[in-house]
Amino acid sequence: MPQKIRVLVVDDSALMRGLLSQMLGSVPDLEVVGAAPDAATAREMIKSLNPDVLTLDVQMPRMDGLEFLERLMRLRPMPVVMVSSHTEAGSETTLRALELGAIDFIGKPRSDGGRSMDSYAEELVEKIRAAKAARLRRPMTTSPATSSPKPAAIPRNGPSATGRIVFVGASTGGTEAIKDFLLGIPADCPPILIVQHMPVAFTASFARRLDGLCAPRVIESQGNEKVEPGTVYIAPGHSHLQIKRSGNGYLTELTASEPVNRHRPSVDVLFDSAASVVGKKAIGVILTGMGKDGAQGLLRMRQAGARTFGQDEASCVVYGMPREAYLIGGVEEQYALDEIARRVVVAAAAA
């Protein structure tokens, strides 16, 4: 019989500790070994109970989740899933937690009818399982300005002059992977459309964060924007992102249709539009993430003549989506994350 995943719940709310413990404790392959109200208690419980995965509240008394996470990842690295409030401040803090080494995050359950508790519990359990299997990243210990790679050198004819458009999809581990990818992209880049699986409250903060770090302009798509070189369009958490023709150019398009592969936005929806609308002028990139969203869409892009790239297993936090795309032939070339930007710039410059 497989060994159970041992989970420690850390939250200053007794109600939340009880709710999360109940959700996780009812799953056969999970075992809640303890529940801590603060960082000091959590530290001692980690020493005595040796959990496999930690769920960690962002906001706690005395020592907040970020400070505790930073110390934990330095002294005793382990998989952590952040449990965050659905606020702008909560989203900014959560993105920082992912920089510090947390594997994933989930918003706190809400009683406003947004989703069922069963649906929430299913997602939480899925994230715990993925965290247990994930590859721990080395946390960022320096500021982005001092640790960023230089953008790839621009070939003489310039990557934005060839009419290419880049389409990127990611999930678990993707916030940092997308950041690292874009840090290697020059300001004079082709348009880039990105789907990152992320709740509604987080995508605007994610786009602003990237815009402050990367050479290209980064925005959360509002729909019907002209698709222009030097601009990155992030799918909002409430809608699928697609591309459509408009005269001699292209526009972004948002649709609130049903989730695909249980996701909205879905990578497959973006990639399918790239295959049908942009065809051989498209470049597809699939990065770290659990599940298979984007695999079939990337295959359809490749069949339509697009160049397609996948992140390799060694550099993925979770080698799920890139693996599925690779196995079915959707990935033309597979590289480590720190090499993909350069390869995309070269491909974009090709006529």
From TrEMBL:
It is an enzyme of class 3 (hydrolase). HAMAP family: CheB_chemtxs. Phosphorylated by CheA. Phosphorylation of the N-terminal regulatory domain activates the methylesterase activity. Involved in chemotaxis. Part of a chemotaxis signal transduction system that modulates chemotaxis in response to various stimuli. Catalyzes the demethylation of specific methylglutamate residues introduced into the chemoreceptors (methyl-accepting chemotaxis proteins or MCP) by CheR. Also mediates the irreversible deamidation of specific glutamine residues to glutamic acid. It catalyses: L-glutaminyl-[protein] + H2O = L-glutamyl-[protein] + NH4(+); [protein]-L-glutamate 5-O-methyl ester + H2O = L-glutamyl-[protein] + methanol + H(+). Its main location: cytoplasm. It holds the Pfam family CheB_methylest. Residues 159-351 form the CheB-type methylesterase domain. The modification 4-aspartylphosphate is found at D57. SUPFAM superfamilies: CheY-like, Methylesterase CheB, C-terminal domain. Residues 6-123 form the Response regulatory domain. Belongs to the CheB family. Residues 140-149 have a biased composition (Polar residues). The keyword Magnesium does not apply. This is Protein-glutamate methylesterase/protein-glutamine glutaminase. It comes from the Bacteria. Keywords: Chemotaxis, Cytoplasm, Hydrolase, Phosphoprotein. It comes from Dechloromonas hankyongensis. The active site is at S171, H197, D293. Contains a C-terminal catalytic domain, and an N-terminal region which modulates catalytic activity. Residues 135-159 are annotated as: Disordered.
